[in-house]
Amino acid sequence: MKIFLTGATGFLGQYLVKELAPHFDTIYILSRSPNNSIFKNYSNVLIVKGDITHLEIIENPELKQVVLSECDFCIHAAALYDLEAGHAESFLQNVVGTQNTLNLVKKMKKMKSFFYISTIAVGDDQSFFLEEDFLPERIKFNDYYSETKYKAEKIVRETRDQIPTRIIRPGVIIGDSVNGQIEKRDGPYYFIDLMKKYSSILKLTSYIPLSFNPRSKLPLIPVDHCARFITILILRDQGEKFLKTYHLISYEIPTISEFLTDLNTSLGLEVDYIPIFRNPFHNSLLKRLGIPSALIPFMFSKLSYDKSRTIEELPELSESVYKHYKSSLFRGTQL
């Protein structure tokens, strides 16, 4: 089998290559640089020079024809994940890039299934339940990342009758479950790094007021688990000509209250975090401390996530449990 992969140079993408390599004869990797040394140890990886924001995507016409005639699967994992990025840049990478990739996939002669890496951020944080096969109607967004990924998933869903399509919605991707290594410090790492920075001061206090709902869930998934599960789903895929959506979130995830308790333990603190309602002063304080304002709504999220199909088709999800990898999360280092 042969597969075409966008976003391979990203954090998740590099783990995907590692998981896919033993199972595919050739992995065609789209890269802006034809001499990417990241994959030099893989004999079955072929780098294809190109860019998802360009209409043709693949620069070399001859190589493009090879990809179109040989690939059995495509994973579109390329995206701009930056909560501080502007609308134009986010739209170009996440929406235009997805549309261009879809146009390419439609021309692939042997295409068995198209896997699109979306995000649980498409869900409405003011609702209570995100179904796997449902994209809620949304108008208001907290950041351009979630807005453009929402629009991209909508485009993918509109082409589901033309291509056997699988939508993967990962949770908050954190570091490796074994060594904790993470490419970019975001999500829960903002709080981990903040508490580490001020741990000597925090040891002198007993209470901290914090804007959060203690019952809100942190939908985490370690990067290695995520890549492994996506690979398993691809290898089991039967090419059914209907849309499937999977929520890749650990089988057991912590509430924010549990996460803060574990953070205390990891830093030797005994701080009680007092939940308070959102207010402009506290939001401003968090921003000054380096917590992006786009993260604050997630600290009050009421959402829970349907994983019916995912658990049925991927029983291995039960192996991903927060208590088994939380120690690596708190000691995690940046690559």
Characterization of this structure:
The chain folds into two domains: 2-174 and 219-251 and 303-320, Rossmann fold (3-Layer(aba) Sandwich), CATH 3.40.50; 188-217 and 253-300, no CATH class. The protein contains eleven helices and 13 strands. It has helices spanning 11-20, 61-70, 87-105, 144-158, 188-197, 199-202, 223-236, 256-267, 280-288, 308-313, 322-331; strands at 2-6, 26-31, 45-49, 73-76, 113-117, 129-130, 165-170, 172-174, 207-211, 220-222, 244-248, 272-276, 304-305. Strands 3-2-1-4-5-7-11 form a seven-stranded parallel β-sheet, with helices on both faces. It has a two-stranded parallel ribbon with strand order 6-13. Strand 4 (73-76), helix 3 (87-105) and strand 5 form a beta-alpha-beta unit. Helix 1 (11-20) crosses helix 7 and helix 3 runs parallel beside helix 4 (144-158). 39% of the residues are buried. The model has no long low-confidence stretch (mean pLDDT 92).
Number of domains: 2
**Structure summary, number of beta strands:** 13
**Spans where pLDDT lies below 50 across 5 or more residues:** none
Distance between the termini: 32 Å
Q: What name is given to the CATH topology of the largest domain?
A: Rossmann fold
Number of helices: 11
Overall pLDDT level: 92
Strand order of the largest sheet: 3-2-1-4-5-7-11
